[in-house]
Every structure is written in C-alpha cells, then in structure tokens.
Amino acid sequence: MPGRPQATMTEPRYFSTSGDGPTPWCWRRNDSGTLRPWPPHTGDGPSLPKAELPAGSWGERLGAVLDWSRSTLAAVHAQVDADPLGAAVRFARATGRCCCCGSARLQSVPERLSSACVGCLGLLAHDTLSGLVARG
C-alpha cells in the first residue's frame, strides 16, 4: 500500500532532484521502478518554457514537447541513479517527510539525521541507513 512501510523495504522510495527553479522537484519510485512526480497532483514534473517552443505546426510543437519531456525524465533518472541516497536526503530536507514512506513527518533528531521515520528505520538495511546518516 503506498505511503505505508513494507516489511521488505530496504531502500528509500522518495527523492528530490535539483531543478532550475527555486523549488526542487520531488519524485516517488513506484513498484515497477519508474520515477513519478510527487505529490501526484503536481502533474508530470517540470514544464517546457513557452519561449523554447519551436515555431511551426501543432505536430512539430507536440514533438518538441515530447522530446523535451523524455530527455528531462532521463536526466532525472540519471541524477537519482547516480546518488540515490543523496537524492533521498534532499527529499527529506525539502519536505520534512520520510524518504521511505513519504507520509510520516520527521520530528525527532534521529529521524532528521537518518531522513527516515521511526516506523521505517527498522526496515532499512544497515548500509542504507549508514549512507543516509552520512549524507544527512
């Protein structure tokens, strides 16, 4: 069930990437491994600025938007895959929420240091928890 710790959880599922704007983009890795924007009602992530849309037919403009969207999502996957624990810590810092379940607020010092709530701390592998603390 989304938002609830699972007994087999061994790694964070929520990440934040550094964006071009003042607010970082947050992402959730679903069960199939795909990153989706978080929270869900935020749309499909960053938008292509209108100034960068090419002049031309509707089909050409749509093709440019789709190409830009694919390359943006590929860059997000690359940034998260390069340092998943760092991206998880960025999520926890940006939102104040657990990087594993995404729903619990981080309130105590141990929770903030580990970027994970009390309910998820016991479900994380030791090396994952050590990596989160080292980056936090």
Briefly characterize the structure:
With 136 residues, this protein is mainly α. It has one domain (14-135).
Describe this structure in words.
By secondary structure, this protein is mainly alpha-helical. It has one domain. Helix content is 42%, strand content 10%. It has five helices and three strands. It has a three-stranded antiparallel beta sheet. A hairpin with a 7-residue loop joins β1 (14-17) and β2. α1 (58-82) packs across α2 and α2 crosses α5 (126-135). The two termini are 27 Å apart.
List keywords for this structure.
three-stranded antiparallel β-sheet; mainly alpha; 136 residues
Return the average pLDDT rounded to an integer: 82
Q: Would you list the SSEs in sequence order as H and E?
A: EEEHHHHH
Distance between the termini: 27 Å
Number of helices: 5
Low-confidence stretches: none
Total number of beta strands: 3
